[in-house]
Amino acid sequence: MFKLSEIKEIIKLVDQTSVEELEIENEGTRLHIRKPSKSEVVTVQTAPVMHTYTQPAVQQQSTASQPVVQAEVAPVQPEASSEQYHKITSPMVGTFYSSPTPDASVFVNVGDRVNTKSVVCILEAMKLMNELEAEVNGEIVEILVTNGQLVEFGQPLFLVKAD
């Protein structure tokens, strides 16, 4: 049986490679992952239950031969007025840290100016600390997550008023 943490890490690893489809069988449990195009559904399948994670507004498809449990993971939606801002998103599944150590000051606060090389947070994945850079010049308008929060791939973390 696969643990949820193992499945998340496998998905992250597949997403970072050119592998389009992966199937693993372990002790009678099968895990099948297929990288989606923009209009396809990502399925994580462990016999006999299938979990389907979709992007919003994408039709879900199921396999009729197996019982199906569906869960939709909706990304955090900032306020409607935030559409004018640049979103700094998470490039991976991990834990968000706003400072380099628990007793250090935070990397950025609302109102701070950032440039393309400014470190805005650390994302921990598989015990590795990954610094995330702003990749845009501008001002931090909103921080959308809290320190220590688990974040998903593509989840918006910051809103920046770009120059």
Summarize the structure.
This protein is mainly beta and 163 residues long. It contains one helix and 13 strands, in the order H-E-E-E-E-E-E-E-E-E-E-E-E-E. The protein has two domains: 4-70, no CATH class; 80-162, Beta Barrel (OB fold (Dihydrolipoamide Acetyltransferase, E2P)).
- Strand share of the residues? 35-45%
- Characterize the overall form: elongated
The low-confidence parts are 42-80
Number of E-state strands: 13
Q: What is the N-to-C order of secondary-structure elements (H for helix, E for strand)?
A: HEEEEEEEEEEEEE
Q: How many helical elements?
A: 1
Structural class: mainly beta
Distance between the termini: 49 Å
Taking Cα atoms only, what radius of gyration do you get, to the nearest Å? Answer: 18 Å
CATH architecture title of the largest domain: Beta Barrel
What is the spatial order of strands in the main beta sheet?
1-2-3-4-5
Question: Please, what is the CATH homologous superfamily of the largest domain?
Answer: RNA polymerase II/Efflux pump adaptor protein, barrel-sandwich hybrid domain
For the largest beta-sheet, the strand count, sense and barrel status come to: 5 strands, mixed
Query: Share of helix among residues?
Result: under 10%
- CATH fold call of the largest domain: OB fold (Dihydrolipoamide Acetyltransferase, E2P)
Total tally of structural domains: 2
The overall average pLDDT, rounded, is: 76
The top-level CATH class of the largest domain is Mainly Beta
